[in-house]
Structure formats: structure tokens, C-alpha cells
Amino acid sequence: MRFNYSDLNPDLIMDALDLSGLRIDSGLIELNSYENRVYQFQDEDRRRYVVKFYRPGRWSRAQILEEHDFAARLNEAEIPVAAPSPLPARPCWSIRATPSPSGRAWGPPVRGGQPRPAGVGGALSRPHPPDRCQSPFHHRVRLDVESMLHEPRQLLASGEWLPSGLAKSFFGVLDELIKHVSDAMTLDVAQISLHGDCHPGNILWRDGPMFVDLDDCRSGPAIQDLWMMLSGERHEQLIQLDTLLAGYEEFMGSTRASWR
């Protein structure tokens, strides 16, 4: 079956799910997604699913399969992650179906309110077990200076992307940032398999956390899965950080080196 990703409509989606061995009974509600097309539906056995159609060209097949394998390993280790279901068949494009997890969205803390309890930090440590799930990624991208800073800088410098009056000052600030980050990344900081996009919107809560959307999983320092939990002014973030680390480091040991 051939199709154009930009032409996805209910009929094409139902055909794709049918080819994958899933039968829609009701629903097919579109969910928010910046990169992909994501829908929720209920099948003939009244089981709820979330199905994702990956945007072509963003990830290779090997990278997508490695994401699915990471989710499965976390699930086997009894870490609460929404892992994809094996599909009886698969159409010619990249598709993932996951049992729809229950729970409420875990939004950011109220500005100026009480910080999150220390137990939240312990919950955030669960996708970072030291040995059980740390089979290294071979195809997923790494959080490193080359791909995150040097390559984008080269792209910006190669064309007229910036107003001429701002380019000199912009690249001056960017080069200083690259130097500081490069110095920090030379530290002996463990590179682990990360969720990669661990913000409050990707955590559901029902008697504990459920982590969803591993689409951005990658290798990098643990801080990448922690800093996006912070919000507000700097003094508020420092309070939240101390609270998070109190729970996180109870299970994982000190991570201070990666916070530079």
C-alpha cells in the first residue's frame, strides 16, 4: 500500500490499522503532536490504543526499531513506560500502536507554589537503571556538541538565515556558548540511554508515573531527562532542583558532575 504522509485522512488511517491487524470500533481522536500524526481509538475488543504515524525522513527504520526495543526493555524491567504492542502485520510506512495508558497529565508546578515532593525525583530515576536497561544505542542520535551545536552553526553560517546586522553579534554569542558547552562535555560524565524529551507533558500520573513518548530517546548525560522538569524563576528552579535531586540521587547516587 502506497500513500503520501501529508494526505493522511480517516480512511487511510483505518486502512493502515486494518492492515496492521487492528480494527477500529470507535473514536479515532487526533492528539497533539509536534512531529508526527497521533490518534487515539478503541478496537473491537474495547481496548484503547494510541497509534503514531512517524513523519518520513525524521528517523530511520533502525532508529525507530531501537526506540521500540528500548521501551520493551524498560517494560520488562517493570518500569512504567508506554511500550508499543507487537502488530500482527505492518504496512509499508512506520507505524506504532500502544495501549492507551490511563492517568492525568502531570503539569508543571504552580508558579510560586510548593515544589514537587522528593518522591518525584525517585520516579524520574526509574527509566535510568544502571544495568538492567542500559544496552547502548547503536542507531539513535547522541546528545553531543557536534550534532547539537557545530552542525547547526555551520548551517546558519552557510546561508543568509540571519539579518546582516545581527549575524556578527549572534555568532559571537553562539561561539562563546559552544566553547562553554564543549568544556563541560569533556568531563567524565556517564552517557546513558535517555527518554530524551522528559517534560511534565510526557508523564501521566495515577498512583505513580507513566512515561510516554520515547520518540526522542537518545544517548546523553542524565541531566537531559531532569532539567525540563524545572520551571519559573531561577530561585524557584533551584528549589525544585534540590527537591528532585533528593529523590533521584537516593536511587542513582550523585549526578552533580553532569549539572555543570
TrEMBL record:
Keywords: ATP-binding, Cytoplasm, Kinase, Magnesium, Metal-binding, Nucleotide-binding, Phosphoprotein, Serine/threonine-protein kinase, Stress response, Transferase. GO terms for cellular component: cytoplasm. It comes from the Bacteria. Residues 33-254 form the Aminoglycoside phosphotransferase domain. Its EC number is 2.7.11.1. One of its GO terms (molecular function) is metal ion binding. The keyword Transmembrane helix does not apply. It holds the Pfam family APH. Residues 100-133 are annotated as: Disordered. Gene3D superfamilies: 1.20.1270.170, 3.30.200.70, Transferase(Phosphotransferase) domain 1. InterPro entries: Aminoglycoside_PTrfase, Kinase-like_dom_sf, SrkA/RdoA. This is Serine/threonine protein kinase. It comes from Aeromonas hydrophila.
